Amino acid sequence: MSAPTSISDTSFRPPPTSDAVAKHNAVVLAAAMALGGSSPAIVVSLGGLVGQALAENKELATLPVSLLNLGLALGTIPAAMLMRRAGRRIGYIVGAGIGLAGGCLAAFGIASYSFVLFCLGTLVIGSYGSFNQSYRFAATDAASDAFKPKAISWVMTGGLIAGVIGPQTVIWTRDAVPAAPFAGAFLGQAALALLSMMIVFLLRPAPVSIASTEAGGGRPLLEIVRQPRFVVAAVTGLVSYSLMTFMMTAAPLAMIGCGHSVGAAALGIQWHILAMFGPSFFTGRLISRFGKGRVTAAGLVLIALSAIIGLSGITIAHFWITLILLGVGWNFGFIGATALVTDCYRPQERAKVQAANDFLIFGSVALASFSSGKLLSAGGWETVNWLVFPPVAIALFLLAWQQRTKAGAPA
Protein backbone atom coordinates (compact mmCIF):
# COMPACT_ATOMS: atom_id res chain seq x y z
CA MET A 1 0.00 0.00 0.00
CA SER A 2 2.27 2.30 -0.80
CA ALA A 3 3.08 5.79 -2.63
CA PRO A 4 5.56 6.30 -5.94
CA THR A 5 9.35 6.80 -5.91
CA SER A 6 11.47 8.06 -8.75
CA ILE A 7 15.16 7.89 -7.98
CA SER A 8 17.94 7.80 -10.51
CA ASP A 9 16.29 6.36 -13.56
CA THR A 10 17.21 6.90 -17.16
CA SER A 11 14.61 8.97 -19.00
CA PHE A 12 13.39 8.35 -22.50
CA ARG A 13 11.89 10.48 -25.22
CA PRO A 14 9.87 8.99 -28.12
CA PRO A 15 9.43 10.47 -31.54
CA PRO A 16 7.05 13.43 -31.22
CA THR A 17 4.65 12.05 -33.80
CA SER A 18 3.62 8.84 -32.02
CA ASP A 19 2.73 7.63 -28.53
CA ALA A 20 2.10 4.06 -29.66
CA VAL A 21 4.84 2.56 -27.49
CA ALA A 22 3.85 4.70 -24.53
CA LYS A 23 0.21 3.63 -24.80
CA HIS A 24 1.18 -0.02 -25.06
CA ASN A 25 3.48 0.21 -22.04
CA ALA A 26 0.93 2.16 -20.00
CA VAL A 27 -1.62 -0.63 -20.51
CA VAL A 28 0.96 -3.29 -19.61
CA LEU A 29 2.04 -1.41 -16.48
CA ALA A 30 -1.56 -0.80 -15.42
CA ALA A 31 -2.18 -4.55 -15.59
CA ALA A 32 1.05 -5.22 -13.68
CA MET A 33 0.03 -2.68 -11.04
CA ALA A 34 -3.37 -4.34 -10.66
CA LEU A 35 -1.63 -7.63 -9.89
CA GLY A 36 1.57 -6.64 -8.11
CA GLY A 37 0.03 -3.66 -6.33
CA SER A 38 -2.31 -6.03 -4.49
CA SER A 39 0.55 -7.42 -2.37
CA PRO A 40 0.56 -4.64 0.28
CA ALA A 41 -3.19 -5.05 0.78
CA ILE A 42 -2.74 -8.76 1.46
CA VAL A 43 0.09 -8.21 3.93
CA VAL A 44 -1.70 -5.34 5.69
CA SER A 45 -4.95 -7.30 5.94
CA LEU A 46 -3.36 -10.43 7.39
CA GLY A 47 0.13 -9.50 8.61
CA GLY A 48 -1.02 -8.37 12.04
CA LEU A 49 -3.41 -11.31 12.47
CA VAL A 50 -0.79 -13.88 11.52
CA GLY A 51 1.77 -12.08 13.66
CA GLN A 52 -0.58 -12.20 16.62
CA ALA A 53 -1.00 -15.95 16.14
CA LEU A 54 2.69 -16.75 15.65
CA ALA A 55 4.56 -14.26 17.83
CA GLU A 56 5.19 -15.17 21.44
CA ASN A 57 5.36 -11.48 22.29
CA LYS A 58 2.01 -10.03 21.13
CA GLU A 59 3.51 -6.55 20.97
CA LEU A 60 5.38 -7.79 17.90
CA ALA A 61 2.15 -8.66 16.09
CA THR A 62 2.49 -5.87 13.53
CA LEU A 63 6.20 -6.46 12.90
CA PRO A 64 5.44 -8.26 9.59
CA VAL A 65 3.69 -5.12 8.30
CA SER A 66 6.56 -2.96 9.51
CA LEU A 67 9.00 -5.18 7.64
CA LEU A 68 6.91 -4.78 4.49
CA ASN A 69 7.60 -1.05 4.64
CA LEU A 70 11.22 -1.58 5.61
CA GLY A 71 11.69 -3.87 2.61
CA LEU A 72 10.22 -1.18 0.40
CA ALA A 73 12.68 1.39 1.74
CA LEU A 74 15.69 -0.92 1.48
CA GLY A 75 14.78 -2.06 -2.03
CA THR A 76 14.32 1.36 -3.60
CA ILE A 77 17.93 2.10 -4.53
CA PRO A 78 18.86 -1.47 -5.63
CA ALA A 79 15.72 -1.56 -7.83
CA ALA A 80 16.65 1.73 -9.49
CA MET A 81 20.25 0.61 -10.01
CA LEU A 82 19.14 -2.68 -11.56
CA MET A 83 16.73 -0.98 -13.95
CA ARG A 84 19.35 1.59 -14.93
CA ARG A 85 21.78 -1.19 -15.88
CA ALA A 86 19.43 -3.86 -17.26
CA GLY A 87 16.36 -1.89 -18.35
CA ARG A 88 12.78 -1.70 -17.18
CA ARG A 89 11.59 -5.07 -18.46
CA ILE A 90 14.39 -7.13 -16.92
CA GLY A 91 14.14 -5.15 -13.70
CA TYR A 92 10.41 -5.74 -13.38
CA ILE A 93 10.74 -9.43 -14.19
CA VAL A 94 13.33 -9.76 -11.42
CA GLY A 95 11.08 -7.75 -9.10
CA ALA A 96 8.12 -10.04 -9.79
CA GLY A 97 10.36 -13.04 -9.10
CA ILE A 98 11.21 -11.49 -5.73
CA GLY A 99 7.49 -11.07 -5.04
CA LEU A 100 6.86 -14.71 -5.94
CA ALA A 101 9.63 -15.87 -3.59
CA GLY A 102 8.37 -13.62 -0.79
CA GLY A 103 4.82 -14.95 -0.98
CA CYS A 104 6.01 -18.57 -0.92
CA LEU A 105 8.33 -17.86 2.00
CA ALA A 106 5.56 -16.17 3.99
CA ALA A 107 3.21 -19.09 3.34
CA PHE A 108 5.89 -21.56 4.40
CA GLY A 109 6.46 -19.55 7.57
CA ILE A 110 2.77 -19.85 8.43
CA ALA A 111 2.68 -23.57 7.65
CA SER A 112 5.77 -24.21 9.79
CA TYR A 113 4.57 -21.93 12.60
CA SER A 114 7.71 -19.81 12.23
CA PHE A 115 7.23 -16.13 13.00
CA VAL A 116 10.79 -15.41 11.82
CA LEU A 117 10.24 -16.99 8.39
CA PHE A 118 6.90 -15.23 8.00
CA CYS A 119 8.53 -11.88 8.83
CA LEU A 120 11.32 -12.59 6.36
CA GLY A 121 8.67 -13.29 3.73
CA THR A 122 6.93 -9.96 4.27
CA LEU A 123 10.30 -8.17 4.13
CA VAL A 124 10.95 -9.75 0.73
CA ILE A 125 7.43 -8.85 -0.44
CA GLY A 126 8.19 -5.26 0.58
CA SER A 127 11.28 -5.19 -1.63
CA TYR A 128 9.02 -6.33 -4.49
CA GLY A 129 6.97 -3.21 -3.82
CA SER A 130 10.01 -1.02 -4.47
CA PHE A 131 9.82 -2.12 -8.13
CA ASN A 132 6.07 -1.57 -8.34
CA GLN A 133 6.42 1.97 -7.02
CA SER A 134 8.18 3.08 -10.21
CA TYR A 135 5.47 1.83 -12.62
CA ARG A 136 3.95 5.31 -12.91
CA PHE A 137 7.27 6.79 -13.92
CA ALA A 138 8.06 3.96 -16.33
CA ALA A 139 4.79 4.73 -18.11
CA THR A 140 6.16 8.17 -19.05
CA ASP A 141 9.49 6.92 -20.46
CA ALA A 142 8.27 6.81 -24.06
CA ALA A 143 5.47 9.37 -23.72
CA SER A 144 5.18 12.81 -25.24
CA ASP A 145 4.63 15.67 -22.82
CA ALA A 146 0.95 15.72 -23.77
CA PHE A 147 0.43 12.04 -23.05
CA LYS A 148 2.42 11.78 -19.81
CA PRO A 149 -0.48 12.72 -17.49
CA LYS A 150 -2.74 10.19 -19.21
CA ALA A 151 -0.07 7.49 -18.97
CA ILE A 152 0.23 8.04 -15.24
CA SER A 153 -3.57 7.98 -14.86
CA TRP A 154 -3.78 4.68 -16.70
CA VAL A 155 -1.30 3.09 -14.31
CA MET A 156 -3.18 4.55 -11.35
CA THR A 157 -6.25 2.76 -12.61
CA GLY A 158 -4.29 -0.42 -12.00
CA GLY A 159 -3.78 0.75 -8.41
CA LEU A 160 -7.53 1.05 -7.99
CA ILE A 161 -8.03 -2.48 -9.30
CA ALA A 162 -5.30 -3.72 -6.95
CA GLY A 163 -7.35 -2.30 -4.09
CA VAL A 164 -10.06 -4.80 -5.01
CA ILE A 165 -7.90 -7.77 -6.01
CA GLY A 166 -5.82 -7.78 -2.81
CA PRO A 167 -8.64 -7.99 -0.24
CA GLN A 168 -10.67 -10.33 -2.45
CA THR A 169 -7.65 -12.64 -2.68
CA VAL A 170 -7.64 -12.73 1.12
CA ILE A 171 -11.33 -13.57 1.24
CA TRP A 172 -11.16 -16.26 -1.47
CA THR A 173 -7.93 -18.01 -0.47
CA ARG A 174 -7.47 -17.56 3.27
CA ASP A 175 -8.81 -21.07 3.99
CA ALA A 176 -7.29 -22.77 0.93
CA VAL A 177 -4.78 -24.59 3.15
CA PRO A 178 -6.89 -25.97 6.02
CA ALA A 179 -3.89 -26.95 8.16
CA ALA A 180 -2.36 -23.47 7.89
CA PRO A 181 -4.93 -20.65 8.10
CA PHE A 182 -4.08 -17.66 5.88
CA ALA A 183 -1.18 -19.45 4.14
CA GLY A 184 -3.39 -19.74 1.08
CA ALA A 185 -3.67 -15.97 0.83
CA PHE A 186 0.12 -15.62 0.57
CA LEU A 187 0.26 -18.39 -2.02
CA GLY A 188 -2.36 -16.33 -3.84
CA GLN A 189 -0.08 -13.30 -3.56
CA ALA A 190 2.76 -15.35 -5.04
CA ALA A 191 0.51 -16.42 -7.92
CA LEU A 192 -0.37 -12.78 -8.62
CA ALA A 193 3.35 -11.94 -8.72
CA LEU A 194 3.88 -14.76 -11.21
CA LEU A 195 1.11 -13.38 -13.42
CA SER A 196 2.68 -9.93 -13.13
CA MET A 197 6.01 -11.38 -14.29
CA MET A 198 4.30 -12.62 -17.45
CA ILE A 199 2.63 -9.26 -17.99
CA VAL A 200 5.78 -7.09 -17.70
CA PHE A 201 7.53 -9.33 -20.23
CA LEU A 202 5.31 -7.53 -22.78
CA LEU A 203 6.95 -4.14 -22.12
CA ARG A 204 8.54 -2.53 -25.16
CA PRO A 205 11.73 -0.46 -24.98
CA ALA A 206 11.39 3.27 -25.48
CA PRO A 207 12.49 4.33 -28.99
CA VAL A 208 15.26 6.75 -27.98
CA SER A 209 17.16 7.05 -24.73
CA ILE A 210 18.75 10.14 -23.33
CA ALA A 211 21.60 9.69 -20.88
CA SER A 212 20.69 10.93 -17.49
CA THR A 213 22.60 13.97 -16.25
CA GLU A 214 21.54 13.43 -12.67
CA ALA A 215 24.37 11.22 -11.52
CA GLY A 216 26.34 14.15 -10.17
CA GLY A 217 26.40 17.90 -9.94
CA GLY A 218 24.30 20.38 -8.10
CA ARG A 219 24.51 21.46 -4.50
CA PRO A 220 25.52 19.17 -1.63
CA LEU A 221 22.60 17.15 -0.31
CA LEU A 222 22.97 18.55 3.21
CA GLU A 223 22.59 22.08 1.88
CA ILE A 224 19.41 21.15 0.04
CA VAL A 225 17.70 19.26 2.87
CA ARG A 226 18.41 22.09 5.32
CA GLN A 227 16.19 24.43 3.29
CA PRO A 228 13.08 25.37 5.28
CA ARG A 229 10.94 24.52 2.28
CA PHE A 230 12.39 20.98 2.14
CA VAL A 231 11.91 20.52 5.88
CA VAL A 232 8.24 21.51 5.58
CA ALA A 233 7.69 19.29 2.54
CA ALA A 234 9.43 16.29 4.10
CA VAL A 235 7.65 16.65 7.44
CA THR A 236 4.20 16.91 5.85
CA GLY A 237 4.88 13.90 3.61
CA LEU A 238 6.29 11.94 6.52
CA VAL A 239 3.33 12.76 8.77
CA SER A 240 0.76 11.96 6.06
CA TYR A 241 2.27 8.60 5.15
CA SER A 242 3.29 7.54 8.68
CA LEU A 243 -0.09 8.32 10.25
CA MET A 244 -1.89 6.54 7.44
CA THR A 245 0.26 3.45 8.03
CA PHE A 246 0.00 3.82 11.80
CA MET A 247 -3.80 3.66 11.74
CA MET A 248 -4.16 1.26 8.82
CA THR A 249 -1.88 -1.30 10.47
CA ALA A 250 -3.80 -1.25 13.72
CA ALA A 251 -7.31 -1.16 12.21
CA PRO A 252 -7.67 -4.86 11.17
CA LEU A 253 -6.47 -6.05 14.60
CA ALA A 254 -8.75 -3.55 16.32
CA MET A 255 -11.73 -4.72 14.26
CA ILE A 256 -11.09 -8.36 15.15
CA GLY A 257 -10.65 -7.36 18.78
CA CYS A 258 -14.02 -5.60 18.69
CA GLY A 259 -15.73 -8.77 17.47
CA HIS A 260 -15.85 -8.09 13.74
CA SER A 261 -14.94 -10.73 11.15
CA VAL A 262 -11.77 -11.14 9.14
CA GLY A 263 -13.86 -10.52 6.02
CA ALA A 264 -15.10 -7.21 7.41
CA ALA A 265 -11.53 -6.19 8.20
CA ALA A 266 -10.35 -7.12 4.69
CA LEU A 267 -13.22 -5.15 3.12
CA GLY A 268 -12.31 -2.18 5.30
CA ILE A 269 -8.77 -2.28 3.92
CA GLN A 270 -10.22 -2.60 0.41
CA TRP A 271 -12.26 0.58 0.83
CA HIS A 272 -9.25 2.27 2.35
CA ILE A 273 -7.02 1.47 -0.64
CA LEU A 274 -9.70 2.58 -3.08
CA ALA A 275 -9.93 5.85 -1.16
CA MET A 276 -6.14 6.20 -1.34
CA PHE A 277 -5.95 5.92 -5.11
CA GLY A 278 -9.35 7.07 -6.33
CA PRO A 279 -8.91 10.82 -5.74
CA SER A 280 -5.64 10.87 -7.68
CA PHE A 281 -7.54 11.51 -10.90
CA PHE A 282 -8.47 14.98 -9.68
CA THR A 283 -5.90 15.75 -6.96
CA GLY A 284 -3.62 17.35 -9.54
CA ARG A 285 -6.40 19.67 -10.68
CA LEU A 286 -7.14 20.60 -7.07
CA ILE A 287 -3.47 21.46 -6.55
CA SER A 288 -3.49 23.61 -9.69
CA ARG A 289 -6.55 25.47 -8.50
CA PHE A 290 -5.97 25.83 -4.75
CA GLY A 291 -2.21 25.38 -4.37
CA LYS A 292 0.05 22.68 -3.01
CA GLY A 293 0.00 23.92 0.57
CA ARG A 294 -3.78 24.10 0.85
CA VAL A 295 -4.36 20.63 -0.61
CA THR A 296 -1.69 19.19 1.69
CA ALA A 297 -3.33 20.88 4.67
CA ALA A 298 -6.74 19.52 3.62
CA GLY A 299 -5.26 16.02 3.61
CA LEU A 300 -3.89 16.45 7.11
CA VAL A 301 -7.26 17.72 8.34
CA LEU A 302 -8.98 14.67 6.83
CA ILE A 303 -6.53 12.37 8.62
CA ALA A 304 -7.39 14.12 11.89
CA LEU A 305 -11.10 13.78 11.06
CA SER A 306 -10.63 10.04 10.49
CA ALA A 307 -9.23 9.77 14.03
CA ILE A 308 -12.24 11.67 15.39
CA ILE A 309 -14.55 9.15 13.71
CA GLY A 310 -12.40 6.34 15.10
CA LEU A 311 -12.86 7.70 18.61
CA SER A 312 -16.63 8.04 18.22
CA GLY A 313 -17.50 4.33 17.99
CA ILE A 314 -16.41 0.77 17.18
CA THR A 315 -19.08 -0.42 14.77
CA ILE A 316 -18.12 -1.65 11.30
CA ALA A 317 -19.36 1.66 9.89
CA HIS A 318 -17.08 3.63 12.22
CA PHE A 319 -14.05 1.59 11.20
CA TRP A 320 -14.84 1.76 7.50
CA ILE A 321 -15.51 5.52 7.51
CA THR A 322 -12.28 6.02 9.45
CA LEU A 323 -10.33 4.03 6.87
CA ILE A 324 -11.97 5.83 3.92
CA LEU A 325 -11.24 9.30 5.31
CA LEU A 326 -7.73 8.15 6.16
CA GLY A 327 -7.19 7.06 2.55
CA VAL A 328 -8.42 10.32 1.04
CA GLY A 329 -6.42 12.30 3.58
CA TRP A 330 -3.28 10.38 2.67
CA ASN A 331 -3.90 11.05 -1.02
CA PHE A 332 -4.20 14.82 -0.59
CA GLY A 333 -1.48 15.06 2.05
CA PHE A 334 1.13 12.87 0.41
CA ILE A 335 0.64 13.98 -3.18
CA GLY A 336 0.59 17.61 -2.05
CA ALA A 337 3.78 17.08 -0.03
CA THR A 338 5.43 15.36 -2.99
CA ALA A 339 4.60 18.37 -5.13
CA LEU A 340 6.17 20.60 -2.47
CA VAL A 341 9.37 18.53 -2.61
CA THR A 342 9.68 19.19 -6.35
CA ASP A 343 10.16 22.89 -5.55
CA CYS A 344 13.29 22.15 -3.53
CA TYR A 345 15.78 20.96 -6.13
CA ARG A 346 17.28 21.65 -9.54
CA PRO A 347 17.00 19.05 -12.34
CA GLN A 348 20.49 17.63 -11.73
CA GLU A 349 19.71 17.25 -8.02
CA ARG A 350 16.47 15.34 -8.49
CA ALA A 351 17.76 11.81 -7.84
CA LYS A 352 19.54 12.42 -4.56
CA VAL A 353 16.84 14.70 -3.12
CA GLN A 354 14.02 12.29 -3.96
CA ALA A 355 16.07 9.41 -2.55
CA ALA A 356 16.62 11.32 0.70
CA ASN A 357 12.91 12.12 0.88
CA ASP A 358 11.94 8.49 0.24
CA PHE A 359 14.27 7.11 2.89
CA LEU A 360 12.93 9.55 5.45
CA ILE A 361 9.34 8.63 4.62
CA PHE A 362 9.62 4.86 4.36
CA GLY A 363 11.88 4.63 7.37
CA SER A 364 9.30 6.50 9.43
CA VAL A 365 6.53 4.37 7.94
CA ALA A 366 8.26 1.21 9.18
CA LEU A 367 8.57 2.72 12.65
CA ALA A 368 4.93 3.79 12.60
CA SER A 369 3.62 0.36 11.65
CA PHE A 370 5.80 -1.30 14.30
CA SER A 371 4.79 1.10 17.08
CA SER A 372 1.09 0.85 16.23
CA GLY A 373 1.05 -2.80 17.26
CA LYS A 374 2.71 -2.09 20.59
CA LEU A 375 0.44 0.87 21.27
CA LEU A 376 -2.68 -1.05 20.25
CA SER A 377 -1.69 -3.87 22.59
CA ALA A 378 -0.89 -1.47 25.44
CA GLY A 379 -3.58 1.19 25.11
CA GLY A 380 -6.17 -0.03 22.61
CA TRP A 381 -7.70 1.52 19.49
CA GLU A 382 -8.60 4.69 21.37
CA THR A 383 -4.93 5.42 22.13
CA VAL A 384 -3.97 4.86 18.49
CA ASN A 385 -6.50 7.51 17.42
CA TRP A 386 -5.53 10.07 20.07
CA LEU A 387 -1.89 9.92 18.99
CA VAL A 388 -2.81 11.15 15.50
CA PHE A 389 -3.48 14.73 16.58
CA PRO A 390 -0.05 16.00 17.75
CA PRO A 391 1.81 15.18 14.48
CA VAL A 392 -1.03 16.68 12.43
CA ALA A 393 -0.91 19.85 14.51
CA ILE A 394 2.87 20.15 14.01
CA ALA A 395 2.61 19.64 10.25
CA LEU A 396 -0.24 22.15 9.92
CA PHE A 397 1.73 24.68 11.97
CA LEU A 398 4.75 24.29 9.66
CA LEU A 399 2.58 24.70 6.58
CA ALA A 400 0.98 27.84 7.99
CA TRP A 401 4.40 29.20 8.95
CA GLN A 402 5.71 28.57 5.44
CA GLN A 403 2.72 30.31 3.88
CA ARG A 404 3.27 33.36 6.07
CA THR A 405 7.01 33.70 5.78
CA LYS A 406 7.53 32.20 2.30
CA ALA A 407 10.81 30.89 3.67
CA GLY A 408 13.51 29.29 1.60
CA ALA A 409 15.64 30.54 -1.24
CA PRO A 410 14.65 29.48 -4.79
CA ALA A 411 16.06 26.11 -5.81
Automatic annotation (TrEMBL):
> Which keywords does this chain's UniProt record carry?
Membrane, Transmembrane, Transmembrane helix
Top-level lineage group: Bacteria
Protein name per Swiss-Prot or TrEMBL: MFS transporter
Q: Which residues form the Major facilitator superfamily (MFS) profile domain?
A: 229-411
Keyword Cell inner membrane applies: no
Listed Gene3D superfamilies: MFS general substrate transporter like domains
Transmembrane domains' residue ranges: 26-49, 61-83, 90-108, 114-131, 151-173, 179-203, 230-256, 262-283, 295-314, 320-341, 353-371, 383-401
The keyword Transmembrane helix is assigned to this record: yes
